[in-house]
Amino acid sequence: MNSNTLGTSRSVFVGPSKINGRGLFSRRAVPSGEIVGRLCGVILQEASKRTIQIARNRHLCSDYIDFVNHCCRPNAYVRVEGDSIVLNAIKNIGREDDEITIDYNCSEFSLAESFMCRCCSVPNRICGYQYLIENNQDEYLHRIARFVQPHIVQMSSELKKSLMIR
Hints:
- This protein is α+β, with helices and mostly antiparallel strands.
- The chain is built from 4 helices and 12 strands.
- The protein has a single domain (8-165), classed as Beta Complex (Beta-clip-like), CATH 2.170.270.10.
- It has helices spanning 104-107, 129-134, 138-144, 150-165; strands spanning 12-16, 22-26, 35-39, 42-44, 52-55, 58-61, 69-70, 76-81, 84-89, 99-102, 115-116, 125-126.
- The radius of gyration is 15 Å and the shape is globular.
């Protein structure tokens, strides 16, 4: 791990995941609504499999992002603060036994590489928020609304307007 992740190693660690290879776990119990950890790193203009979108054409690359696995019913969400992200608990996260997961549809307008989720009995294709809008996934959109990043909402509003013009 390099110095791009300031102080995070004190709050989280990487361990074996039931979802996908290795995952991110908390070193302490985290009550719902509390901060799990902060991820800092390098800002890139292009999305990749190993980044999280923090603004239009701004994507954070951090040591730990590779290990934040997707879940359609996650226990954490991403909040952007400047050039870093804060992971906040949606529900109580147990110490060392609950993997920290987020819903990638809330933090990415369009994923660099889509994938099939591994959390549902019938896997969903995870492509980003844009895909949910284009495919009228209203129930899913309603469920995640309070966790979607503001820049994603703005980009989706622009997309909706352009779809109406056509």
